[in-house]
C-alpha cells in the first residue's frame, strides 16, 4: 500500500490528516511525521461537531461586534500579570513597525480551578455554554493527538500529557480569540509578527479569511483554509519535551484589506512551576535543552532573554 498517499490527503503542502480512517497507526504516523517535519498539520473529520464549531464562531463574532465600551466589561486589567481578558491593538498606526495589529480575548477554559468567569463575556448569553461544550471536545481531541505524539517518541501514550504537561486535570487550556479587522495597507503590517508559540500546543479554528502562514525551508507557506478543519501548531515546550524531535513551527498572520479575519485558538500549557525538560526515557540521548520551569520560559521569551 502507498502509505504516503493514504496517510496525508493534501491539496497544499501543509499536511492534512483525515481522522476518520480506520487504521489508527496510519493516522498516528501522519501526525508524528507532520510534527517532525513541519510542526503544523490540519485535521479533518475529527469528532468535534461542525455545528458546535459554527456556534463557537458565532458567539465569538457576536462578542467582537459589540461596541468597544461593552467589550471592556471583560477587559484585561491594566498592569495585570495574567493574560486573561480583552485587549485591543488594532487601532495602532498602520506604519508602526513590529507591532501586532490585532485584538484578543483570552480566558482559561480548563481545569475548573483555573477558570475565572469574570473574563468570559456575558453577552451574547450563550457564550459560556458554547465554550464549555467546546472545551470538553477539545480536551478529548488533544489527548488523542498527544497520545500519538508520545508513542512517536517511543513512550507510552500518557507521557506527554502526564509527565510533560502535569496531567489531564492540571494542564491549563486557554481560549484565545484573535480578531484582525480589515487593514487598508495589509502589505505594511502583520496581524501577528513571526513567532513560535510559547505554550505547548495550539489548536486553531480560523474563519474563512486566509492569513496564517508557516515557515519551512526558508520559505513562507499559506495554511490553506479548509472548512471545519482544525490546525495544530507545535509550540516551544513540546520541542523541549521531545528533545528536538517535534518542531516548534515559526508562523505569522497577514491582514485582509476588506474583511475581518478571526481565529479561535486553544492554548495548552503546563502550570508555571512545571519543569520543562526532555521526557524521561529520552534521557539516554544527550539532552539538547536545559530544564527550565514553564514560568521562567515564558518570562525569558517575553523579555527576549537567552534560553539555553
Ligand atoms: O490567527 C491565527 O491563525 C494564528 C494565531 C496565532 O498564531 C497565535 O495566537 O499565537
Ligand atoms: Fe501563534
From TrEMBL:
Region (Disordered): 74-102
MF-aspect GO terms: metal ion binding; oxidoreductase activity
Pfam families membership: 2OG-FeII_Oxy, DIOX_N
Gene3D superfamilies: B-lactam Antibiotic, Isopenicillin N Synthase, Chain
Highest taxon in the source lineage: Eukaryota
Record's keyword terms, sorted: Iron, Metal-binding, Oxidoreductase
Occurrences of domain Fe2OG dioxygenase (ranges): 170-270
InterPro entries linked: DIOX_N, IPNS-like_FE2OG_OXY, IPNS-like_sf, Iron_ascorbate_oxido_reductase, Oxoglu/Fe-dep_dioxygenase_dom
Keyword Oxidoreductase recorded: yes
Start-end of Basic and acidic residues biased regions: 90-102
Family classification: Belongs to the iron/ascorbate-dependent oxidoreductase family.
Protein name in UniProt: Fe2OG dioxygenase domain-containing protein
Protein's organism: Eutrema salsugineum
